[in-house]
Amino acid sequence: MGKAGQQPARLQLLDEKKEIPATEAARTGRGRRLFLFAGVAAGLIVVALALGLGLGLGLKHHHRGSPAATSSPSPTPSPSPTNSTASESLQSWRRDTAEYNLSMDWDINAAPTTRVFNLTVSEIQAAPDGVMRTMLVFNNQFPGPLIRVNQGDRVLVNVTNQLTNATAVHWHGLYQNGTNWMDGTSGITQCPIPAGTSFLYNFTVENQFGTYWYHSHHSTQYTDGLVAPFIVHSPEEAAVQKDYDYDQIILLQDWYHDLSTALLPDYFASGNENAEPVPDNGLIQGTNVFDCSSYGDDSGYDCQNNSTQATFAITQGKRYRLRLINVGAFGEFQFSVDNHTLSVIEADSTLVEPVTINRLPINIAQRYSVILTANQTATNYWIRSWMNTYCFSDDNAPILNPDVKALLTYTNTTNEPTESADWASALDIVCEDLVTATLVPSGITPAPSADVAYKIDVAFQIGAYALDKAYINSTTWVPETIPTLNQAVAGLHTLNNSFSTSGLSTAFDQTSQFVIDVPNYQVVDLLINSLDEGAHPFHLHGHQFWVMASDSTGDFDWSTYKDLNTTNPMRRDTLTIDAYGWALIRFKADNPGMWAFHCHISWHMEAGLLMQFQTRDDIMKDWTIPEDVLGLCNG
Ligand code: C2O
Fold first, then answer.
1. Residue 541: CB within 6 Å of ligand 1?
2. Beta-bridge partner residues of 167
3. Residue span of the signal peptide, if any (predicted)?
4. C-beta separation of 160 from 140 below 8 A
């Protein structure tokens, strides 16, 4: 390995011949779809007829008139309490999120133990914001149950799938070092858990602590409600614990009134120019109000004005750690609390030097901890989670009210705030992260120099079947029937050389699997170059990466490579690549397995915006994937 700041030993610009030209036309305006095949128009009609994709039935119609749930049975309202408030009596499908208020009595120094959790995945009818819909949930309630462990604990999660479809559960941000097959990534690290069966996830949480979450990693399922927090404590947390008196998880998410599977056909329809389904609402702690009058009587939705905003009660003089997790599908939020500044202390499980802000941008799958001090007049204030509609192709007005709110109360009341003042600072109209340079990890970890660098291009194109698909170079991901992990381990066993060649793997079908093979330990630089007009929150499984450089314009200038800050760059697992922007990230390919790197926007992953790293073949070649994991493929 060279000295810090030198050129990487090898710079591989993958697949350059097939790279999509970043023409000026491609970089301007919305009309930037790149047609791969000439006969698209003719092909489109044939495919539309064949698949019955219902072209022309846009989302608007869907919302304003035509009966909604095309694929789901008409919802039956659950008996709702008429004479009690939500705080007195919860609807049976609504989780009591008191468990998200983390008891400070938890022993962060406890000896490692085994913790067992049971998760049932099922379909229910529920109305988080008053609009009844079909949802997919853990343990019959929404949002999902907290998993709380200590670093060093063994975690057993028995997942029982009561859906009519297969599922898989991913632990977002956990390294899974040595247990790649427990990563829960359908088509990559496992076959999904068949309907009507159970699977035991069994892994140890090592060398990490902080705020994580778990969610379905099968198609767009998590968008329908399969989300929950996963908290890891550690003795090392003592240093920050002294800065707060209470520890509170807050889930933020965008929300749709239809099943994600009902929204996909319109999204993929070829005339659609990658116009993602725009959320109908936003939730804080799994709840919000919705104005039913924005739906006509014939909307097909069962809408009751009976839901409430979340309420957080605080005590004057106390300090609150708020662990914010964006568990949504598409929308970035700007989180703020009226009259209260926020001190950021954690981003994606990396503790950072405190930085005081008024508004915090938080993109899909990212986590931030902020400390709020109850030092204002003891009354009620708004917590705001403003959904950044500038990230959307359409504002979905008047249905979507992007000013998603919850109540902060010093008086334990639900009175409308009267003295609450939103910050004067303007809302950000671009979808981008908190400037990376403002985040300085409090545990100093220099970035080692890179051994190899790869560059990928990210774009949307109308593909071979006239579907609107996402591409990494010229690959659009489609999950394999046999997980790529199973294929790689089998290939390495038989000494099939195509499974252990460094660089872009030829062992897989490159039209659907973009796999970079890093056979032995190396430090990898990945330059992600976006040719798309939208921002993309990219997530790397199994690792944290250093954010070496990024910008919202132009291309990375390799002549600056030797000057990159390697002293203590920010480390995280989910980073927004700005519209037409780029980012250079670095990670140690020291964790054996198949690791997804993908845009976490539900719609984009489903559109194929996913690649994989195959790392440490030297270890993988000796692996035996457990029988129960392999058995999932026989279901
Ligand atoms: Cu939150 Cu690929 O995952």
1. yes
2. 193
3. none
4. no
Q: What's the rounded Cα separation, in Å, for the pair 142 and 213?
A: 14
- Whether ligand 1 lies within 6 angstroms of the CB of 218 is answered as no
Distance CA 510, CA 463 (A): 14
Query: Ligand 1: does its nearest atom lie under 6 Å from the Cβ of 383?
Result: no
pTM of the model: 0.88
Other C-beta atoms closer than 10 Å to the C-beta of 322 total 21
Could you tell me where the DSSP H helices lie in 197-292?
238-241, 260-268
Look up tokens 């559109």; give the residue.
607
Determine how β-strand 154-161 pairs with β-strand 114-126.
parallel
List the structure tokens of 63.
């919302």
Distance 185 CA to ligand 1 centre (A): 8
Q: How far is the CA of 544 from the centre of ligand 1 (A)?
A: 13
Ligand 1 centroid, distance to 367 Cα (angstroms): 13
- Report mean pLDDT in 10-residue bins for the chain, 635 residues: 42 42 32 28 30 28 30 34 44 96 98 98 98 98 98 98 98 98 98 98 98 98 98 97 98 98 89 85 98 91 95 98 98 97 98 96 98 98 96 89 97 95 85 87 96 96 69 97 98 95 96 97 98 95 98 94 96 97 98 98 97 98 98 92
Task: Determine whether the shortest distance from the Cβ of 610 to ligand 1 is under 6 A.
Answer: no
CA of 1 from ligand 1 middle (Å) equals 31
